[in-house]
Specification:
Layout: H1 2-21, E1 34-39, E2 41-44, E3 47-48, E4 56-59, E5 73-74, E6 76-78, E7 81-83, E8 86-90, E9 94-98, E10 105-110, E11 115-121, E12 126-130, E13 135-141, E14 148-154, E15 159-161, E16 167-173, E17 176-183, E18 190-196, E19 201-204, E20 207-209
């Protein structure tokens, strides 16, 4: 009699364990992510450019945790220029500005997205800025007017930068409908909307007209460049 009761109890326990391990019909399963891909066309004087690299294509309002800032980035100062001249980061990223020249530099920005003034610093020194807001940051040197850089700060990691042929691909996008933007450092941007299905690939073909950098800008105090004192 004890053996029979033991077997019944063992069978019930095994069944309960199996039932707990299996998902119930009401349990929500994670939706499979999708992809956005396409080719960007850049017009110059009304004709498509051969080199269509460096365009940032990104999605807005994508749900999920805060973006992963990733490693610290660098914009170096060499031969009185910024290198690279254009950089894309996500919120929370720190960017260093090493001075590789043999002269002093003073990196600054008066952009609404991030206002900063790193002050004068000499060759071999490095200063940095952490970007907390999404938007565009125009970066200059207060001594050398030819030194111009742009930093595009994004809200999320769902972006891609085009290759020379203008192609791009944004992977691991949750299903949904999102605004999509194609941004260039100088000139207007493309704005549209894209719908991502579970496991599907949405195709977008933005067209941009190339712009030109501004001829001049002001120093950090709002005055024109001249002899630095």
């Amino acid at each position: 009699m004890r053996s029979i009761l033991f077997c019944i109890a063992l069978t019930a326990s095994a069944a309960l364990a199996l039932e707990t391990a299996l998902p119930t019909p009401t349990q929500a399963q994670p939706a499979q992510a999708g992809t956005v891909s396409g080719v960007v066309t850049i017009l110059k004087d009304g004709a498509p450019k051969a080199d269509r690299s460096g365009i940032t294509v990104y999605l807005e309002n994508v749900p999920g945790p805060p973006p992963s800032a990733g490693p610290t980035r660098q914009i170096r100062q060499k031969y009185q220029t910024f290198a690279p001249g254009v950089m894309v980061v996500v919120k929370g990223t720190t960017v260093e500005f090493p001075n590789d020249d043999k002269v002093f530099h003073n990196v600054f920005s008066v952009s609404k997205t991030a206002r900063f003034d790193l002050g004068l610093y000499k060759s071999g020194e490095t200063k940095s800025v952490t970007f907390h807001e999404a938007g565009v940051v125009d970066v200059y040197c207060n001594i050398h007017p030819q030194m111009v850089a742009k930093i595009k700060v994004l809200d999320n990691n769902h972006y891609a930068v085009t290759g020379a042929d203008g192609s791009f691909k944004i992977k691991n996008v949750p299903p949904g409908k999102y605004p999509i933007v194609a941004w260039q450092a100088f000139g207007g941007e493309y704005r549209g909307e894209v719908t991502i299905t579970a496991g599907g690939t949405a195709t977008v073909s933005p067209t941009l007209t190339e712009g030109k950098p501004p001829i001049r800008h002001l120093r950090k105090d709002g005055t024109p460049y001249g002899r630095y004192k």
